[in-house]
Predict the 3D structure of the following.
Amino acid sequence: MSLLELESITKSFGGLMAVNEVSFDVEERAIVGLIGPNGAGKTTVFNLITGNHRSDSGAVRFESKDITNWPTYRIVKLGIARTFQTIRLFQNLSVLENVLAGCHCRMKSGSFTAMLRMPGERREERAALARALDELAFVGLQGQEMQLAKNLSYGSQRLLEIARALASEPRLVILDEPAGGMNEQETAALIGTIRRIQNRGITTLLIEHDMSLVMKACEKIVVLEFGSKIAEGAPEAIKGDPKVIEAYLGMED
Amino acid sequence: MKNKSMYIYGVIFAVLAVAPTFLNPYWVDVLNNVGLYAILGLSLNLIVGHAGLFNLGHAAFFAVGAYTAAILNTQFAIPVLWLLPVCALTAGLFAGIIARPIIHLRGDYLCIVTIGVGEILRIALTNDLFGITGGPNGIFGISRPTVFGYVIRRPHEFYYLIGAFLMVTIFLFHRLENSRFGRAVNYLREDETAAEGSGINTSHYKLAVFVLGAAWAGMAGDIFAAKMTIIAPESFNFWESVVMFAIVILGGSGSIPGVLLGAVLFVGLPEVFRDFADARMLIFGAAMVVMMIVRTEGILPQRPRTYALPEARNAGGAP
Amino acid sequence: MEEFFQQLTNGLAVGSIYALIALGYTMVYGVLKLINFAHGDLFTIGAYLGMTLLASFALHETIGPFIGLVVLALMVMGLVAILGAIVERTAYRPLRESPRLSAVVSALGASIFLQNAVMLIYGARFQVYPEDLIPETAIDLFGLYVPLVRILVLAASLVLMAALYTFIQKTRIGTAIRAAAIDQDAARLMGIDVTRVILLVFLIGPALGGAAGLMVGLQYGQINFTMGWTYGMKAFTAAILGGIGNIPGAMLGGLLLGVIEAMGSAYISIAWKDAIAFFVLILILIVRPTGLLGERVAEKV
């Protein structure tokens, strides 16, 4: 059984077909790459999975449960966390509090328990704090907890987004161009981080333009062009696929 | 640093605790108004400062509380202080009902709708809604509050009642700020999409913060009704909402000390400069423009929360 | 039936004033995505300037009532336009790169400042326009007697709106304004000086608002420093009703709101007159936030 299944998912924006009947599966504990030329509809597919856009037709299933058009926060709670192509951190809050945002959906305290400072609320806060520190250490941002997110370097901001996603204890993380803006060294470290995410039993689905990263890290690749899926398979097969080569002709990067 | 500010707060608290002994009733009453607006400001701060939702109709919730107290007290002779939870309930309920369909609106649209709600309510009260609000003259004959059989009547007696309520508000809201709830509303202020994408039910928190802020304003309304013994629609017009809004924005969005300072500046200071009382709103307006240009976050901005980190990393890079 | 048509002409006259003010809101919102709260107060200032100029120059006596009023209107429009540009420079331009809500607070501050400046200069009481400026005759329109001033207000508003519409649709500068409203960055890349477009919008909008202020003074005879708040809120409602950012929408919304209000206060309740616009505002934002002529825009994630 696949962890995530997309079935003929479709989305158009005012007559422009952004995603056209795309179907693919993501197996449990796999690392899957979603690639394609600019404007192929990759980010739209992500937005459809995470409920940021409403789909016109088709279905998204997670652990066999139909989650099509669920509100985003419920999808996160169910176990799908994501990062954004255009980094969306809480820029004016500390690095630590950005990660604590991810912990939110695994906590319960409300306004009244907080005002009365019930023992359970304190316990939960301590646990969340410990978890957030762990996730920061996991992506290598330990020691920068009290920095404001906006003061981090570009690469570190991408890592912080990953830490925030992991803090929500997901089964699947969706990374939208995690290496965007990173230098070679940081990208190499990122591949290690993605592998370690896999070792924790978490499945990864990612969009990436850095082909060396995709080829090295992913076990399966799905290729989109003009909103449609044109190929799917192991990295070696994708490399030799004439349709993919045609789509990418002259766009080597 | 921390000790020094605690010391300052301690001195201010001690002076305020004995203030009625050396101030005449007029100035004690001015302080009472400052206290009342501080409570209103703190309740609006949850909505405007913490959640970033522009509410320019907070006087409406204040009015719902005051009218609830006035009607139930004059009609059924229920003691005003017993009505505190009832006023919180009606104001919160009112906020919940009106906020539900409009809460998804973007910043400035929400702002304009809250103005509209405030005005509709004021017109409704003036038109003697359901025949129980007394029309433009309002409701009079609201009884004085009693605490353990002791009737609170004079300004310096109200001073301690309002003071106690303010202290409780500060205490509870300080805890609320430093909690999962407080963080959640800050996340949605910073970036709603990212908050939702981190697993936060943003509509729920927007609604919750509206209801909670409104409920608190409702309780302030109860105390206001008891203090005045007469209330009328004009006490809850748009300019009251503007004053509350200015207290939060200029004092310091999301900052309890900021809001308290704002209340002192905008309610207390004009009394000191009575000769310029007419120019009060003119100065407000100019201050709002200048503040947005030079110091968007207010006079005393929200400070980053501190956490019990191992190896005292809190000192880290906090500015 | 007579009553109905009287209310209709009345509604159209008031509505045309709302429409003139609404144009200022909608144009500014179009290019800056900002509710220019100060706009209502510029309208008030137009009304007060009209009164002052009437009293000090008495143009209607020296060069005849009709030409006198036209010259007066042009003077008021010019002065309010200059004031609008000053507001833009001091309260909005420094915040061009700031969060949108900072600009909203600044706009609100500018509004409060202007309103209270008027109060401090002219006093808080109602001020009265000189009488007998426009003969108090009624014109026979197919058996319906409509006050002359009502017809003049409607006609003048329609002329101004037609002029604006032609300017926006047919001239190069008008095209630049429309382009900046659709996409500021793209417009800048196409070589449009967006800063100048914004300045222009802050000249045209207040000029129309100032003219509306003068019309209110002429039609109702008395003015007050808070009138910009009431008229401003209603005009803003009209702009949203028509679809904010949309110029024909503001005209349609204004006329429609004027008629709704006139009918509502005649047939439902006069006491609730001022609440009608707010009900319309809330209803339209819940049901169709894009307004009658507005288009839906998807937010980018």
Q: What stands out?
A: Chain B touches chain A through 40 residues (CB under 8 Å). The longest helix of chain B spans residues 202-228. Confidence is low (pLDDT under 50) at residues 312-319 of chain B.
